[in-house]
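go over both lines:
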Amino acid sequence: MSNQDQNKPASAPAGQALANDQHPVRLAAKSPNALKRLWPFLSQYKWVMALAAVFLALAAGATLAFPWALKILIDQGLAKQEGRLHLAEHFLALFGVACALAIFSAARFYTVSWLGERITADVRNAVYAHVLKQSAEFFETTQSGEILSRLTNDTTLVQTVVGSSLSMGLRNLVMGSGALIMLIWMNPLLMLQVMGLLILVVWPSMRMGRRVRRLSRASQDRVADASALASEVLNAIPVVQSYTAESRESARFTESTQFAFLTAVNRTKARAVLVGFIIMATSAALLWGLYEGTLAVQAGTLSAGELGQTIVYVILLASSAAVLGEVYGDLLRAAGATERLMELLETRSSINSNPSSVEPAWPQNGSIVRIENLSFKYPSRPNQWALKDLTGTALSGQTIAIVGPSGAGKSTLFSLLLRFHDPLSGHIEMDGARIDAISLNALRNRIGLVPQEPIIFSGTAMENIRYGRVDATLEEVIEAAKAAFADDFIQALPNGYDTFLGERGVRLSGGQRQRIAIARAILKNPPLLLLDEATSALDAHSERVVQEALNRAMKNRTTFVIAHRLATVQQADCIWVFDQGSLSEQGTHTELLERGGLYAGLAKLQFNVNRTSQEFTA
């Protein structure tokens, strides 16, 4: 089977899992069955669930015992006009029932709330860890704001249900069922009539519940759209402000939140109608039963205490039915949230680690990289070759410069070396093994990347450099910083290596950020180094300093350098010239000039040529 065939089944979910979120309303299942998918998380805490169930049953039992104690008080304490002592005993019995209810309810609340918080944290952790392992294709089709919305808003809905609504629902289900059983036991014929009326309530309630479920999912999707828009704009705030687009972006966000508001209003209307219908219908059925019970007291077939007991049981049954109606709405919302979370968890990366992976020996002086007939197309551009039949070899310790026009496939090669994508045909070998036979962790541990736009995390200088190797000592971090010419400016910061650099390193200049990234790669000490136009955005002074740092980083390791400025690659061991996804020519700087091909043409655009000496100056 080819790599292309292998990728087809796995890559589909990454491109499709969240695609439907762009539609105003996404149809979902017709019941809260999606909540069953939380069972793998719940099953880890069976003892907590069992304890919560015990407290729930005891609390419901105490509630159901209250009408029985009230009946005894009325029939024996009030109707028979017993003395103060006996009357006090009856009231103490009622107080004892209330104390038991308070204790068991508090214990139930604590255990269920703990379970809800724990499950929410576990789901959030699982989703986040899973998302981090997705392929580049997934992040090309999914907005980060959408993911963050699912990690926050949707998990909060799940927490509300597991930690509160579900417990309330189960408690009221037990309480309502107990009250119904007691009422049937007291007057079977009457309550069978009431049961028939209650059954008539179920069917329309289910019909309205389905609409609430669909609108709940749509409401969550619209909130996610607004979050994604805000995240995108906030990450590009310098551009937004430079184009004085604050008002325009505010209007876009207002429009998005208004859409979310209107969808939420529709959901609230549907849920209000559902809750109102359930309360009205169940109250009508139960009042009918109470009316018949009152007639029975007048006829002398029912005592006053039994009537009082019936009234309380009717109230318990009616209130339980009303709460269950609201809980059902919560379950429908949480089911939609669970579906959205499970979509992320069930998304499968198109790039998978080989279970029978090999681990080549760690090279001492740089990796050997062999590329054979490599071809690749991006899924978003299926009719255009990003790379076509690329073949080349980088020997241990060599520096390979990659040049060519924009869109020629230079960065694509880096993506394939890191296995962010897999080729459609051909393969790459590293140190004698095909990279798709090496585990992803082992492969990427061998590669250091210094991107054109360095990534600085919201932390200290120490934490950012140590990101390359988290177990590095302070001395190793400082040594890497010195090698990257970063030690001097870091020491000059207010708190040295413990200085907070701000989000995305906003407190540093471009050259300083670049040197932090180089220090990170040096500390990692990989046998293969990938430099993606690491000096293209710097001024002349910063470029010179950073280039010296890069020269140090390139020692004793194989290096691929993407560069538009040809002055930075003249000393490379070999220059690969890319053109429309193909390797059009390769050789040293001098050899390529003599051939008069694409490289020579690019050189003429950047340098003044002395035709006699063939010396180039910037």
